[in-house]
TrEMBL record:
HAMAP family: LeuA_type1 (MF_01025)
Organism: Thermoclostridium caenicola
Biological role: Catalyzes the condensation of the acetyl group of acetyl-CoA with 3-methyl-2-oxobutanoate (2-ketoisovalerate) to form 3-carboxy-3-hydroxy-4-methylpentanoate (2-isopropylmalate).
UniProt GO BP: L-leucine biosynthetic process
SMART domains linked to this entry: LeuA_dimer
The protein, known as: 2-isopropylmalate synthase
Entry's Gene Ontology molecular function annotations: 2-isopropylmalate synthase activity; acetyl-CoA C-acetyltransferase activity; manganese ion binding
Alphabetized UniProt keyword annotations: Amino-acid biosynthesis, Branched-chain amino acid biosynthesis, Cytoplasm, Leucine biosynthesis, Manganese, Metal-binding, Transferase
Family note: Belongs to the alpha-IPM synthase/homocitrate synthase family. LeuA type 1 subfamily.
Lineage: Bacteria, Bacillati, Bacillota, Clostridia, Eubacteriales
């Protein structure tokens, strides 16, 4: 099985996204996580672009470059190559990455030079880089729109000048998988004859959504190395998403006969970190790392999954660091999914007639509120079959947001909450860094549940009429993570309800565990 080298360029191509600029500490945090993910090479920046970028690449090379190879980008000019060398040289294995166009658009229109002049410039750049560092990558920018014979002539010349990696970029996302695969097959055949030690790499952009497909087609046709970014971020429509390429190979090793060294269980964590530090949301249906990537809401699918997970699941959520698949209870869920959710929250002993009453109430609530959560089922069960908790967990332990007030001002945003727990009324008021922080601090204080907020997101839905709040928390007393959502027309209420829902999930989970232990 071939091992494919993975270069991550989140900190270079990814950081080119408008508004996604990171500070030094954020870049170091991401670089460290990329190391945990076990990428082979980190492209840490473009050091000639600014003193800040130079410093960031230098710090990453010093602090993260013990096991992972570190590179940075240079145009084919001496000053850029110097900047790369002096910033990456602190790594155990530094690599200089040079880029120069090969398409006529680049040669004639962008550089206003002849093909011969550009080729000569590329060769000189490689020779200079090679005099500084043994590892040199040469990228033939816009390769997929280049004349093949000129492209090959360039590759041959820069390999003879000392390049150790040849990177074929589909710079503007022009390629299609069959054609790009064929291009890589032809280059690979010639390159392996010229010098079998030179690594053939690809770098694909996603302008028509084909970056992952083109990258995988290249691997199938002999590419040894791929360049990707976390969450597929990058210039314009982005780059090939690392998580998609890696899991594509993981799922279809049989077809690609290739694998990577990526620790796949770190994928979700890495995606979250990049998304939160860069302030770039991941689309909910994004492959592998989107919030809905392992969530099932159709009744037909839920029934199939509960009978046999492989009916609708080809990648296990745990393989990418997601806790479990999610069965979302909506009005489309069937009886099987509702019975399964009831069992999860500790209700198994009911008659068929009682279940039909519960199911009817469930549908009514699902129509009104779109998604039904486990603690909602508690309310339904208790209000429908009116047992005195003989065999179900205790409803009185759940929290309900009874009232809230938020004061937004520049100095002391503050919040007061009133929360019901059974017959008790819990109240708290607090200030925070902002309205949501004040609200969450007050809820934490009122409930007395020690927890850390891992993630908070707010999206507008229903054409902006409603807001969807999402939170993930880690509860200190059991060390477990819980994620929950809530919808409301008021953004602060959606945020508060999502938080209270997540706390209730922890309460329900603990009740069920306690009950299971008591039965054993
Ligand atoms: O898209 C591109 O061509 C690049 C090169 C620098 C590899 O980002
Ligand atoms: Zn690029």
């Amino acid at each position: 099985m071939r091992k494919i080298i993975v270069l991550d360029t989140t900190l270079r191509d990814g950081e080119q996204v408008p508004g996604a600029k990171l500070n030094l500490y954020e870049k170091l945090e991401i670089a460290n996580q990329l190391k945990n993910l076990n990428v082979d090479i980190i492209e840490a920046g473009f050091p000639a672009s600014s003193a800040g970028d130079f410093k960031a690449v230098e710090e990453i090379a010093k602090k993260v470059g013990d096991k992972v190879m570190i590179t940075a980008l240079a145009r084919a000019v001496k000053s850029d190559i110097d900047a790369v060398y002096h910033s990456v040289k602190h790594a155990e294995q530094p690599l200089i990455h040079i880029v120069l166009g090969t398409s006529d658009v680049h040669v004639q229109k962008k550089f206003r030079k002849t093909r011969e002049q550009i080729l000569e410039q590329g060769v000189e750049a490689v020779k200079y880089a090679k005099s500084l560092c043994p590892n040199v990558q040469y990228s033939t920018e816009d390769a997929s729109r280049s004349d093949f014979e000129y492209l090959w002539q360039t590759i041959e010349a820069v390999v003879k000048a000392g390049a150790t990696m040849i990177n074929i970029p589909d710079t503007v996302g022009y390629a299609v998988p069959e054609e790009f695969g064929e291009l890589i097959r032809k280059i690979n055949e010639r390159l392996k004859n010229l010098n079998p030690d030179v690594i053939l790499s690809v770098h694909c952009h996603n302008d028509t959504g084909l970056a992952t497909a083109n990258t995988l087609a290249a691997i199938k046709n002999g590419a040894d190395k791929v360049e990707c970014t976390i969450n597929g971020i990058g210039e314009r429509a982005g780059n090939a998403a690392l998580e998609e390429v890696v899991m594509g190979l993981f799922l279809r090793k049989d077809y690609y006969q290739a694998t990577t060294g990526i620790k796949t269980t770190e994928l979700k964590k890495t995606s979250r970190l990049v998304s939160s530090l860069m302030g770039l949301d991941v689309q909910v249906n994004k492959a592998i790392v989107g919030d809905n990537a392992f969530a099932h809401s159709s009744g037909i699918h839920q029934d199939g999954l509960l009978k046999s997970r492989d009916a609708y699941e080809v990648i296990h959520p745990e393989d990418v660091g997601v806790d479990d698949m999610e069965i979302i209870l909506t009005a489309r869920s069937g009886r099987h999914a509702v019975k399964n959710a009831l069992a999860q929250v500790g209700f198994t002993n009911y008659t068929d007639e009682e279940f039909e009453q519960i199911f009817a109430k469930f549908l009514e609530l699902a129509d009104a509120k779109k998604e039904v959560y486990n603690h909602d089922l508690f309310h339904i069960v208790q209000s429908t079959i009116r047992r005195d908790n003989a065999e179900g967990p205790e409803l009185k332990d759940l929290y309900e947001l009874a009232d809230m007030q938020v004061v937004i001002n520049n100095n002391f945003p503050s919040a007061s909450v009133k929360i019901k727990k059974g017959d008790e009324i819990l109240t708290a008021s607090n200030v925070g860094d902002g309205a949501v922080d004040a609200l969450y601090t007050a809820i934490r204080e009122a409930t007395g549940v020690e927890l850390n907020l891992l993630e908070y997101k707010l999206n507008s839905i229903s054409r902006g009429k409603e807001a969807l709040g999402r939170v993930s928390i880690k509860v200190s007393r059991n060390g477990k993570n819980y994620s929950s959502k809530a919808i409301d027309t008021d953004i602060l209420k959606a945020s508060a309800l999502a938080f209270v829902n997540a706390v209730n999930m922890a309460v329900v989970d603990e009740m069920v565990s306690k009950r299971e232990q008591a039965v054993v």
